[in-house]
Amino acid sequence: MARFDNTHSRIVAWLKVILPLAALAILSSLFLISRRIDPEAAIPYADVDVAERLREPRMTAPTYSGQTSDGAAIVVSASEARPDQGEGAGAAGLQAELTTPDGASTRFEAATARVTPDRTVLSLEGGVRIASSSGYDLTTDSLTAALDRTRFESAGAVQGSGPIGTLTAGRMVLTQEPGRPQSYVLVFTDGVKLIYLPPSP
Prior knowledge:
Layout: H1 2-33, H2 50-55, E1 59-60, E2 63-67, E3 73-77, E4 80-83, E5 89-99, E6 105-115, E7 121-132, E8 137-140, E9 143-146, E10 151-154, E11 158-162, E12 165-169, E13 171-176, E14 184-189, E15 193-196
Antiparallel strand pairs: 1-4, 2-3, 3-5, 4-5, 5-6, 6-7, 7-8, 7-9, 8-11, 9-10, 10-13, 11-12, 12-15, 13-14
């Protein structure tokens, strides 16, 4: 019985030495086999100049949506927007879409834009493109849009194509048709020139 106890004690004593060594060997092999961490492959962070952002605060990819008093839906987005001191806000890479209650839609694209402090007037500048669901594809230098009612008005000449041909005009206005609340018209004035292109047979 004493011999068995001595054998058992020796086994326990050896296991107290062997098991910690085995655990240490396993941990060492894990560190040796594991893939080396590349500091250059760490999680990338945005390359942003914090000081510049503090001097010139801005928003990236802002979106505005609303409804005019006559029921038209308008959605405006930009690649970047920034506040102006006491003069509303400016934006770059602007896109806007107007959907009127009669189901027609008109898209506007402009290089830059500016909104008044009361957010009622949006000025599109730097070359504006107008594309309507009725088939008009027009360009103009600048355009003024009311955000509280449906009214888009060019500041100067427009040119492009329409359902019946190519045209130029000194001014263009998209607005609600007087006396018909659910109807909207695109009006060209100030020296309109239309080259009629008959439809292909």
